[in-house]
Design brief:
There is one protein chain. With 441 residues, the chain is an alpha/beta fold. Helix content is 38%, strand content 15%. It contains 14 helices and 16 strands. The protein has a 7-stranded mixed beta sheet with strand order 4-12-11-10-7-5-6, with helices on both faces. Strands 1-2-3-15 form a 4-stranded mixed beta sheet. Strand 1 and strand 2 form a beta hairpin. The site of pyridoxal-5'-phosphate has 15 residues, from helix 4.
Length: 441
């Protein structure tokens, strides 16, 4: 098949004259051979301006849990648009959405809305600091919490900026990030409960919060090892630290109760984004009432002109109704499809002598391209991931996949949505077979 992208190339060239760098989010520039321009989506499929059809496993970086353009979502947004797009005031819709979250998520006693998870992270950290009167935040190397200065600490430091394994405190190499922000963070290794205990012991009475992705999806796909989340909960309880689960990716993907119910833990605060709005700019902070006290009293500023925007609320209400109807059972079907895709990709990799190793939770997984001679076996932390992965070779395979109509995320992540079917997986593997053969040639 091998797609070409002349119209996307033409639009990208035109965009250079108005949009800085041609894109509106840095990662989009990584799409090779050219950032794609889309015309429309339907279900599991995306259609670009060149008329190419993709089986989409990127699904809006995880936001499109319900598939592209479901009729009910379009109707909900359209109906609201006719009544007004923004009032900067209250609406019954915001209570409807908040009550749904309370019903779905254990521990969601109170709720506040923002437009992006990046903003919600900032709210959560501010609240935790105000609640405890402490300033340090503990986070894990490789975990991403939005693009604010604080969210980037320790996210993707290159090896020449790594600290010692005992003290892995380094900034993301983004220019313009305030270096002093490092002084307000303690960074720990993911999936190493003993190391975490040491890090907390060093600073226990100064740490306001521990923030983490329950299934690390922004650096490979690394579920927590047994004991990891239990240790976070135990250390938070023992030291008066606020436990913040960043469920921006995992929220609703793992069922109505999110990853926390699926994995059996209750955080103090939870960050929700992406799937909560099905592709509109909407995000929420939920958690126990006592942690919201300083927002409720007005001592902590939480603001936003477009917060609880009725257009987004109408979308969120529709999305949450889908998840409530499916309950906590829907992950099973998505996991089964994802595992089939992982197994199929592994088989194709073996047939073509390509060192590709899918790893993850089925409904979201990462396909790791190993460097020659790299150690086999599960990848469990950030440094392991950086040291073992062959990023240029994956980029080439991804491009071949794209040219055959299979779209995965630039860094190797694959999402299954509720719109994917058995036929999609079968067809994706048929198309992938062509891509793998071309890559190996
Ligand atoms: N937290 C996590 C775990 C994320 O994956 C992301 C985005 O990918 C964010 C926070 C930031 O979300 P947003 O891009 O909506 O601001």
């Amino acid at each position: 098949m091998s797609y070409t992208f002349p119209k996307s190339a033409e639009l990208f060239a035109r965009a250079q004259h108005s949009i800085a760098g041609g894109v509106n989010s840095g990662i989009r520039k990584m799409e090779a051979p050219v950032p794609l321009y889309f015309d429309h989506g339907q279900g599991s499929r995306l259609f670009d301006v060149d008329g190419n059809e993709y089986i989409d496993f990127q699904i809006g970086q995880g936001a499109i849990l319900y598939g592209h353009a479901p009729a009910g979502l379009a109707d909900a947004i359209g109906a609201q648009a006719h009544k007004g797009t923004h009032w900067a005031a209250q609406s019954e819709l915001e209570i409807d959405v908040a009550e749904r979250l309370q019903k779905m998520i254990p521990g969601a006693e109170r709720v506040r809305f923002n437009n992006s998870a990046t903003e919600v992270v900032l709210s959560a950290l501010r609240l935790a600091r105000a609640h405890t009167g402490r300033s340090l935040i503990l986070k894990f190397e490789g975990h991403y919490h939005g693009w604010g200065d604080e969210g980037l600490v320790g996210y993707a430091p290159p090896p020449d900026q790594w600290g010692t394994p005992e003290n892995p405190t380094r900034l993301h190499p983004s220019k313009g990030v305030i270096p002093e922000v490092l002084g307000t963070f303690v960074v720990a290794r993911w999936n190493d409960p003993e190391h975490l205990r040491q890090r907390v012991a060093e600073h226990h009475d100064q740490i306001a919060a521990i923030i983490f992705e329950p299934v690390l999806c922004n650096t490979g796909c690394m579920p927590a090892v047994p004991g990891m989340i239990e240790t976070i909960r135990e250390l938070c309880d023992a030291n008066g630290i606020v436990m913040i689960a960043d469920e921006t990716i995992t929220g609703f993907r793992f069922g109505a109760g999110c990853a926390q119910k699926h994995l059996g833990f209750t955080p103090d605060l939870t960050i929700l984004g992406k799937a909560i709005g099905g592709g509109v700019p909407f995000a929420a902070l939920v958690g126990k009432e006592k942690f919201f006290a300083k927002i409720m009293s007005g001592e902590v500023v939480h603001a936003g002109t477009l917060n609880a925007n009725p257009l987004c609320l109408a979308a969120a209400k529709w999305c949450l109704d889908q998840v409530i109807e499916l309950g906590d059972k829907h992950p099973a079907g998505m996991i089964a499809l994802g595992e089939q895709l992982m197994a199929g990709l592994s088989k194709l990799a073996a047939q073509n002598n390509i060192p590709l190793r899918p790893q993850g939770a089925g409904l979201v997984f990462h396909a790791m391209m190993l460097k020659p001679g790299a150690q086999e076996g599960p990848v469990t932390n950030y440094r392991d991931y950086v040291l073992r992965q062959d990023a240029p070779r994956w980029a080439h395979l991804r491009r071949c996949l794209l040219e055959e109509g299979v779209r995965a995320i630039e860094r190797g992540l694959w999402f299954i949505s509720l719109a994917h079917t058995q036929a999609d997986i079968d067809e994706a593997l048929e198309r992938a077979a062509l891509a793998f053969a071309r890559h190996a040639a």
